[in-house]
Write a structure and sequence with these properties.
CATH architecture of the largest domain in chain A: 3-Layer(aba) Sandwich
Structural class of chain B: mainly alpha
Number of domains of chain B: 2
Distance between the termini of chain B: 64 Å
Number of strands of chain B: 2
Largest sheet of chain B: 2 strands, antiparallel
Pfam family, one (chain B): BPD_transp_1
Low-confidence stretches of chain B: none
Keywords (chain B): Cell membrane, Membrane, Transmembrane, Transmembrane helix, Transport
Family (chain B): Belongs to the binding-protein-dependent transport system permease family.
Number of helices of chain A: 18
Membrane topology (chain B): Multi-pass membrane protein
Mean pLDDT of chain A: 92
Helix content of chain A: 40-55%
Protein name (chain B): Putative ABC transporter permease protein YurN
CATH architecture of the largest domain in chain B: Orthogonal Bundle
CATH class of the largest domain in chain B: Mainly Alpha
Oligomer: heterodimer
CATH superfamily of the largest domain in chain A: Periplasmic binding protein-like II
CATH class of the largest domain in chain A: Alpha Beta
């Protein structure tokens, strides 16, 4: 072969190999709410030093990519080797069973067993992955605004009405545009729905039509948007089931009370700094209880991977007690690992507000209703959440009365159940 | 004795370059001669069209037929093999209305809302886009100071990605955006432009015009510059007023360019998605939800997805686009005939 021929052949091989997945490559699709992407990168760099034969590629993407593009990739039998997702149960047919691949399945069962069912097909015992964090929906109050207005922050047993009244008083007194905001998310809306006595799950395990509990809170909620108690910006700012958060409004001091969840703590700690004082408040009470919603993001292995052994090795490393502890302490996330929880955490922050907020959310986890604990592992949760967001935002925008929105929610969910063929 | 024909002289370097060029030409020439011998001249035309037809077939026609096949199936699975044949059920579902003028009376009410919004958007946007592009082209065609600079200014937004366009205008129009900041400075109360149905709709139309007007202006400007100047000079000598010259000279001679612009604007308006999706997300409520967003959300973004319904909606949108294109072809032909009669 001539010299030119050799060079051309080498170039062609180089081109081919540069696009193909190499043996030993593990690709992770990851999204971040705060600093967790950086922490994970650091942990993975250490893993690769310990395991030079495995190359872990971290693809940091937006949450919408995980919500909208990953499902299509999975349906096509593609996708990353590992993914961080929140829609765990409905996509569980795509997760790899790690049970025969991990070093010690009993360790996984003992430490992550409580949430294992959230991410595996019904009736199976497979190990699909683990929760990178457990989240609890709950509220945050701008303490500085309350203090300046001379209004007392409502106590632990305060109802949604108590909070609305107090937040409105503060907003009027301090000339703040929004008394309250609740993320444009069906998951977030479900916390108060449940505290008003809602039950989404029918006797056959499929979605039931919206009941009195849901209707009672939704009526209150839409009314609050109409009269300006609740931020209109978040709920009418999009069509369909698009997610919108009000975190920036809270960070900018434009919001008195923000109902979101524990994952906002690192975000607030970093971005608010010493601009004002804030506190986590747990979930306000409804007539039935004072529950928020639990959930979180799981790290799952995808069954279409070409390198399952390497994937299991990465998962074993990330699920290790010391690694989970470090990840949680540095990201200020609540871990799912039983051993880590039992031994306690020393969150790496000098911010006493963040530490207090974390303690508040751990406390709030004790008042979660049984249904709130069950919904993350229910196949139809996201279907219900999507329909809720789409239609409630139409009612909030004044496009249809709430009664019609409720009828549409039931019809949308019924159509989707029918479409699924299940 | 016959004199020897002198050979063209050239530099040694030029000759050296020509050798590989001639070799390459010979390599291309040989198979073409072979094809021509085997297929004749008509066959040669088909041979040259083949690559284009293959690409068109694989990337346009085939997906169209696959999409049509999807529209006849139901379920949430992605692969056709895993989907159940439902015939025209998806189309029936889309057209299941008791009153087509009232989207709320339809099973798929958001589809009809999107259809209504898209129709209204097309009417407004196309009219205003043509008007603004034409006026801008007429102004830029005059002897202006720094004319090239102004042309660049109007063309600049075309270079931006639609997502960037959406984000820029969102930063301007949102509650804590630049517009409200400026209004506040002048003593006005801030207003939530993107939360108001009418303003959000107007913003969608306006931003889309701002983003694409430069391209159409350029086409019209090229048409204006192709009109012979002596026609205007003759008209001026006859005492024709500028307005009459516009209607009698400019507009008729610009008509071929104008037709191209109308069709391009129409097609783009029916397909509106990217910049508006970033700007308003389809809201407030569903007031800026357009057909493409409906298809995207139904097929990809919602839990659970319905690719069959999305495919059916996109087939209907395709039919609308084909009808619009046929109208344009018809108009183009009648315009040519009228031109040749004159």
């Amino acid at each position: 072969m001539t010299k030119t021929g050799t060079m051309l052949a080498a170039f062609a091989v180089g081109l081919l190999t540069s696009t193909a997945a190499m043996a030993g490559d593990v690709r992770i699709m990851w999204y971040s709410d705060g600093v967790e992407g950086e922490v994970l990168k650091d942990l993975l760099d250490r893993f690769m030093k310990e395991n030079p034969g495995i190359n872990v590629i971290l693809d940091n993407v937006s949450y919408s990519v995980v919500r909208e593009q990953l499902p299509v990739q999975l349906e096509a039998g593609n996708g990353p080797d590992i993914a961080r997702v929140t829609n765990l149960k409905a996509q569980s047919q795509h997760w790899l069973d790690l049970r025969p691949l991990v070093a010690d399945a009993a360790y996984w069962d003992a430490n992550f067993g409580d949430q294992a069912d959230w991410m595996r097909p019904d009736g199976s015992t497979q190990i699909s992955g683990f929760m990178t964090q457990i989240t609890i929906a709950g509220g945050f109050a701008n303490k500085t605004l309350f203090d300046q207005a001379g209004v007392a922050i409502p106590g632990k047993d305060a109802t949604w009405d108590d909070w609305a009244k107090a937040a409105k008083q503060v907003a009027e007194s301090q000339q703040v545009p929004f008394p309250m905001a609740l993320d444009r998310s069906g998951h977030r809306l479900s916390g108060p729905n449940l505290s008003f006595g809602a039950n989404y799950i029918g006797a056959d395990g499929k979605p039931a039509p919206l009941d009195k509990g849901s209707k009672a809170f939704l009526e209150k909620f839409v009314g609050w948007i109409a009269d300006g108690t609740m931020s209109k910006d978040v709920w009418v700012s999009a069509a369909g089931s698009t997610y919108r958060a009000a975190a920036d409004d809270f960070i900018n001091g434009q919001l008195v009370y923000y109902y979101s969840g524990s994952w906002q703590i690192p975000n607030f700690s970093t971005k608010i700094g010493s601009n004002f004082d804030w506190v986590a408040t747990g979930s306000p009470c409804g007539p039935a209880n004072c529950t928020g919603m639990t959930g979180g993001a799981g790290l799952v292995a995808v069954k279409y991977t070409k390198n399952p052994k390497e994937v299991a090795k990465v998962m074993d490393y990330l699920a290790r007690e010391d690694i989970v502890k470090e990840f949680s302490e540095r990201t200020l996330f609540l871990p799912a690992h039983k051993g880590v929880l039992a031994k306690g955490l020393d969150f790496k922050t000098d911010d006493p507000q963040a530490k207090a907020a974390l303690a508040e959310f751990i406390d709030a986890s004790k008042t979660l209703s049984d249904l709130a604990r069950k919904l993350p592992g229910w196949h139809w949760s996201d279907t219900v959440y999507g329909a809720l967001v789409t239609r409630v935002s139409q009612a909030a925008a004044g496009e249809m009365p709430l009664q019609e929105a409720v009828t549409r929610i039931d019809a949308d969910i019924a159509a989707k159940v029918k479409d699924s063929g299940l | 004795m016959k004199a020897e024909t002198p050979r063209p002289t050239g530099s040694g370097f030029g000759e050296a370059i020509m050798i590989p060029v001639r070799l390459a030409m010979g390599l291309i020439d040989a198979p073409l001669r072979w094809v021509q011998r085997k297929l004749g001249l008509g066959g040669m035309a088909a041979f040259f069209l083949l690559p284009n037809m293959l690409i068109f077939g694989i990337f346009v026609l085939l997906p169209f037929f696959i999409n049509f096949a999807y529209s006849m199936t139901g379920g949430t699975a992605l692969f056709l093999d895993d989907r159940t044949f439902v015939g025209t059920d998806q189309y029936v579902r889309l057209f299941d209305c008791s009153n087509y003028l009232d989207p709320n009376s339809c099973t798929e009410d958001t589809f009809w809302t999107a259809v209504g919004n898209t129709a209204w958007f097309v009417v407004l946007q196309v009219t205003l886009m043509i008007l603004f592009s034409l006026v801008t082209a007429l102004i830029l065609n005059r002897e202006l100071m720094a004319r090239s600079f102004w042309r660049a200014v109007f063309f600049f937004p075309v270079l931006l990605s639609p997502v960037v366009v959406g984000l820029i205008w969102k930063w301007i129009l949102q509650r804590q955006g630049l517009l409200n900041f400026a209004l506040y400075g002048f003593g006005f109360q801030p207003y939530t432009w993107l939360n108001d149905r009418n303003w959000a709709f107007a913003a969608a139309v306006g931003v889309s015009i701002w983003a694409h007007m430069g391209f159409y202006t350029l086409i019209l400007l090229a048409g204006l510059q192709a009109i012979p100047k002596d026609l205007y000079e003759a008209a001026e000598m006859d005492g024709t007023r500028p307005a009459r010259a516009f209607w009698r000279i400019t507009l008729p001679l610009l008509m071929p360019n104008l037709l191209v612009v109308i069709v391009l604007v129409l097609i783009r308006a029916v397909q509106i998605f990217d910049e508006v999706y970033v700007l308003t997300g389809g809201g407030p409520g569903t007031s800026t939800l357009y057909l493409t967003q409906y298809i995207y959300e139904t097929g990809f973004a919602t839990q659970l997805r319905n690719p069959g319904l999305a495919a059916a909606a996109s087939i209907l949108m395709g039919v609308v686009l084909i009808v619009l294109t046929l109208i344009q072809l018809g108009l183009g032909r009648s315009s040519e005939k009228n031109g040749s009669r004159k």
